[in-house]
Design a protein that fits this description.
The protein has 436 residues and is α/β, with parallel strands linked by helices. It folds into three domains: 113 residues, no CATH class; 188 residues, Rossmann fold (3-Layer(aba) Sandwich), CATH 3.40.50; 104 residues, ANL, C-terminal domain (GMP Synthetase, Chain A, domain 3), CATH 3.30.300.
Length: 436
């Protein structure tokens, strides 16, 4: 470990190219790592430095790798490796490389020439699936990402999200290296530690999940501004976006999917659904204002990828995201987008968190349902009057359910699909969990 000419930093520890080479040399005592070409490797390492060093090595040597979040239990990591056609699993402190039983491994096509990065979809619309992307495709994405986001030049990337996922790994870490910056990867998710890192690097570009950004904004000391914040994964609720814009010099949003990587970047987020101009190496189609359609994307003339997202391109060619197709609620032929309903309820002074989803209805086809979190019980009739003054009749939730917490997936996202399935045959009263 050295403090001179660091290549990147993990928490407070700087690492140089020499440190990376030494770490890789240690790991390469495993013969499968010494010659990684043509093999798929699953990696679940506790030490983020070890993983990042190995990632850079495998990318250079044409290895194929599935990064697994370090908090994943060994048996779960083993199952993920088997389901994605990996030949071996490197886990724990890197001392053990476990060869996987071929009879237990899903048979897949041979890895792409030059190797590939294997990622898992988020699972918000079903069971996560494996996405294989060649390193050459990722290099194209990196070139286009850096070219399409010049506002990041000269800023220190602060990557406060998992570097086992494409958002943190590709857009935060690898793109930072491509710009010639020194990325700072944060694994200590204590908000005070992150705020201290941001304070020590005032010209920063923060990559973080919306939930963490929301927490940091609330804890941000008076007089300490945020510089540039990049959001991804879900459109930020309007109330939080408005607050964040007032605390940061620049708030950006990016949009993507597992199969194509980053698709569009908005260097200044003016509204929750504005995702900006598509990256130059992509062809993107969607609907028009007032007539949204499924967003479809193709790379270099390849068959179009159906994103299952609803959106449109405006007259300036900027992409707007409205909702997941599976999450859109059709009330008597009128589309209701969950985010529109959630934005209204988040403006209630006593509501902290909400999620809108759908439930079948014999008369309207589907109806809006809503779960919310509040520090104290809310009066049902008063809440209904409040929302009827701010929502169209087809947007008003049929079910208002106050809960202690809203269920989330392991990646921190809410699955409206799971909530919809849970409530599909639910015969509960029209208002549940709200004090009458």
């Amino acid at each position: 470990m050295t403090t001179s000419n660091p290549l990147f930093v993990v928490d407070a520890t700087p690492y140089s190219r020499d440190d990376v080479e030494r770490a890789v040399a240690t790991l390469c005592r495993h013969s499968a790592l010494a010659e990684p070409s043509g093999r798929r490797l699953a990696v679940c390492l506790k030490d983020s430095f070890q993983w990042l060093a190995l990632c850079l090595y495998l990318k250079e040597r044409g290895g194929s790798v599935l990064p697994i979040h370090p908090g994943t239990p060994l048996e779960a990591a083993r199952m993920l490796a088997q389901e994605t056609g990996c030949h071996a699993l490197l886990h724990g402190d890197g001392a053990t490389l476990e060869a996987l039983d071929p009879s237990e491994v899903v048979s897949l096509t041979e890895p792409a020439p030059g190797g590939e990065l294997i990622q898992l979809s988020s699972g918000t619309t079903g069971r996560p699936k494996a996405i294989m992307r060649s390193w050459s495709a990722i290099d194209r994405e990196l070139d286009s990402y850096v070219e399409g986001f010049p506002e990041a030049d000269g800023l220190t990337p602060i990557v406060a999200c998992p570097v086992t996922h494409s958002y943190g790994l590709i857009c935060g870490f690898l793109a930072g290296l491509r710009r010639g910056q020194v990325p700072r990867v944060v694994t200590n998710l204590n908000p005070r530690f992150i705020l201290g890192t941001l304070r020590d690097h005032p010209e920063h570009l923060l990559y973080a999940a919306p939930t963490l950004v929301s927490l940091l904004e609330r804890m941000l000391p008076e007089g300490q501004p945020l510089h540039t914040v990049m959001l991804s994964g879900a459109a930020l609720p309007s109330p939080l976006l408005e607050t964040l814009v007032g605390r940061a010099r620049r708030v950006c949003q990016q949009y993507g999917c597992s199969e194509a990587g980053c698709i569009a970047i908005a260097p200044r987020a003016e509204s929750p659904g504005l995702m900006g101009r598509p990256l130059g190496h992509l062809e993107v189609s969607a609907g028009q204002p007032g007539a949204p359609e499924e967003i479809r994307v193709s790379v270099s003339g390849a068959p179009a990828i159906a994103t299952r997202d609803l959106g449109y391109l405006d007259e300036q060619g900027h992409l707007h995201f409205l909702a997941r197709l599976d999450d859109t609620i059709n009330v008597a032929g009128i589309n209701v987008y969950p985010g529109d309903v959630e934005d209204v309820f988040l403006r209630h002074p006593r509501i902290d968190e909400v999620v809108a989803f759908k439930r079948p209805d014999a008369y309207a086809g589907e109806r809006v349902c809503l779960q919310f979190v509040a520090p104290e019980p809310l009066d049902s009739e008063a809440l209904r009057r409040w929302c009827r003054e701010r929502l169209s009749p087809h947007q008003v939730p049929m079910v208002l359910e106050q809960v202690e917490s809203i269920a989330k997936l392991p990646n921190g996202k809410v699955s409206r699909r799971q909530l919809a399935q849970t409530h599909a045959a639910d015969g509960q009263a029209e208002v549940s969990g709200v004090t009458p």
